[in-house]
């Protein structure tokens, strides 16, 4: 039997309850949380206030469970707190493979393996294969607690290991098979441990789907999930709510009625010819974007419209009523010329920034950033897709003037022309293994060259599109596009030239654009 307990249950209580279920029913119980393995007996440490694993084991002992316990901790960080708490308890064996030891490794029953940084699939899986079976056979646990941390993944924001998604799933499957596929299966409690960034949940999702069905399901992209949710919300909206001003009675004259009658009456009264100011705010509210700003500490987000800019209409969102903290600035226009036969929403400029946040070792500035981003790019793109669908536009169109702009938005977006898509992919391959800030500096410093000739390859802001209509989707995902893309990709082979990249973000910014300019999207 497999029981998965939801995340909203308190983290410590969830692990306590999961351990009781696993022992009582002899199966597998999962707490979608927990794994607070750094917390010590008498203090907090490393994001961990209470050690839920230790509390759960103590609770089992109180209920009369006396069997040996094995803690298998495969979070990238050392399970030092759990080891320290049970260092003089021979009935609990703590097994941890990690990058660095976080404390004393001396304990009556412990296996602490330090592998350092840059660990890949082969090393971790090989270490597991060589060491864990002997531990299981010697301890013969009556209960196992598996800390299935996702921070060993290569794309983890704080991790220093480089496991692939296949390696992560192989790790999880190996541990569970070793513990469960035996004449007398070992009851198992699974807790999630560490994992940082937008993609952490996907490794757990693959593991859970395999655990429940025997088949690992590939989770959708985060952007796709946002779009699905936004589209469901859009279906509940009334067009009148988006186009009317609730403070103006229907029998009163509005600005639209006065256009061309009174001198000086505004020429534009609706955002993109459709949305009232109230409609823009309502859509941002209903899609949850304003709530996400509130969660970031901006209690009173305020929206303004500038409908008369020559390059397009502008929406600004401030974090306060005084309009001093600019959080978002979006300038767009409807255009029928940039892609003949299609009407698209052209994004001339998008700025997303968090003035209260600080850069640091885990959050380095990207070119053009005066402040860290808000982390809302996928939500803002989802909002703009909903706008396109309401207005029956074919899609979004913009020109990423910097490499990092294209990289941040490439999940659902393609370059309009296949030769430019092929060039981007060649850049991406050449820059694999570099963090985004370093990769952007390499591109801006013209460090990307053709492998055969050493000739520098410069970055240009070729147009990208996010298709909404079927006709635009066919243009950039259809058979003809794919054929040309394959041909162009086959002839491209790029690499990063030898030499030292600039180490200082400040130094790098001196050679990169750092101001607002046409077609750029920064601070996301």
Describe the structure in your own words.
The chain has 2 domains: 2-219, Arginase, Chain A, CATH 3.40.800.20; 225-522, no CATH class. Mean pLDDT is 87; it is low at 248-253, 256-262 and 502-524. It is globular and about 80 Å long. Strands 8, 9, 10, 11, 12, 13, 15 and 17 form an 8-stranded mixed sheet that branches. α1 packs across α2, α4 (121-139) runs parallel beside α5 (165-180) and α14 (418-430) packs across α17 (479-490). The two termini are 43 Å apart. It has 18 helices and 17 strands. Helix content is 36%, strand content 16%. The chain has helices at 11-25, 52-62, 80-85, 121-139, 165-180, 200-213, 222-234, 239-243, 255-258, 277-286, 289-295, 377-391, 403-409, 418-430, 436-444, 470-477, 479-490, 505-509; strands at residues 2-5, 28-31, 69-73, 92-98, 110-114, 143-147, 188-191, 302-306, 313-318, 326-335, 344-352, 395-398, 414-415, 448-450, 464-467, 494-496, 520-522. With 524 residues, it is α/β, with parallel strands linked by helices.
Key traits:
524 residues; alpha/beta; Arginase, Chain A; eight-stranded mixed sheet; 17 strands; 16% strand
Percent of residues in helices comes to 25-40%
The largest sheet is:
8 strands, mixed
Give the CA-based shape.
Answer: globular
Cα distance, first to last residue? 43 Å
β-strand amount: 15-25%
Average per-residue pLDDT, rounded, comes to 87
């Amino acid at each position: 039997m497999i029981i998965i307990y939801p995340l909203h249950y308190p983290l410590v209580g969830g692990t306590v309850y999961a351990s009781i279920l696993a022992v009582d029913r002899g199966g597998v119980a999962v707490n979608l949380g927990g794994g607070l393995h750094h917390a010590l007996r008498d203090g907090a440490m490393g994001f961990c206030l209470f050690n839920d694993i230790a509390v759960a084991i103590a609770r089992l002992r109180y209920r009369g469970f006396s069997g040996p316990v094995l803690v298998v901790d495969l979070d990238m960080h050392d399970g030092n707190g759990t080891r320290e708490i049970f260092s003089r308890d021979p009935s609990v064996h703590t097994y941890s493979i990690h990058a660095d030891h976080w404390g004393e490794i001396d304990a009556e029953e412990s296996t602490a393996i330090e592998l350092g940084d840059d660990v890949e699939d082969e090393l971790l899986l090989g270490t597991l294969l060589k060491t864990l079976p002997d531990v299981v056979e010697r301890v013969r646990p009556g209960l196992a607690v598996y800390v299935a941390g996702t921070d060993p993944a290569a794309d983890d924001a704080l991790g220093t290991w480089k496991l692939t998604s296949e390696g992560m799933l192989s790790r999880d499957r190996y541990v569970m098979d070793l513990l469960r596929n035996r004449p007398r299966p070992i009851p198992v409690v699974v807790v999630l441990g560490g994992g940082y960034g937008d993609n952490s949940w996907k490794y757990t999702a693959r593991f859970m789907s395999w655990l429940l069905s025997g088949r690992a399901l590939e989770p959708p992209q985060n952007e796709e999930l946002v779009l699905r949710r936004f589209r469901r919300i859009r279906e509940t909206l009334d067009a009148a709510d988006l186009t009317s001003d609730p403070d103006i009675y229907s029998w009163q004259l509005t600005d639209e009625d006065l256009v061309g009658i009174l001198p000086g009456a505004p020429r534009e009264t609706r955002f993109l010819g459709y949305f009232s100011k109230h409609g823009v705010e309502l859509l941002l509210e209903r899609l949850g974007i304003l709530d996400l700003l509130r969660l970031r500490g901006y209690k009173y987000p305020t929206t303004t419209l500038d409908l008369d800019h020559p390059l397009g209409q502008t929406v600004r969102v401030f974090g306060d009523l005084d309009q001093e903290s600019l959080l978002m600035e979006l300038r767009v226009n409807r255009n029928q010329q940039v892609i003949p036969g299609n009407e698209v929403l052209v994004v001339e400029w998008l700025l997303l920034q968090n003035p209260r946040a600080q850069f640091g070792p885990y959050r380095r500035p990207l070119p053009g950033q005066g402040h860290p981003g808000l982390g809302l790019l996928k939500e803002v793109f989802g909002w703009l897709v909903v706008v396109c669908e309401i207005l029956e536009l074919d899609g979004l169109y913009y020109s990423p003037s910097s490499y990092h702009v294209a990289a941040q938005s490439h999940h659902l977006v393609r370059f309009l022309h296949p030769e430019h898509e092929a060039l981007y992919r060649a850049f991406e391959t050449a820059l694999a293994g570099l963090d985004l800030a370093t990769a952007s500096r390499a591109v801006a410093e013209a460090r990307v060259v053709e492998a055969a000739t050493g000739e520098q390859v410069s970055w240009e802001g070729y147009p990208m599109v996010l298709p909404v209509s079927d006709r635009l989707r066919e243009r950039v995902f259809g058979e003809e596009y794919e054929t040309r893309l394959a041909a162009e990709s086959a002839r491209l082979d790029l690499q990063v030239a030898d030499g030292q990249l600039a180490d200082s973000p400040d130094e790098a910014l001196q050679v990169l654009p750092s101001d607002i300019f046409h077609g750029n999207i920064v601070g996301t």
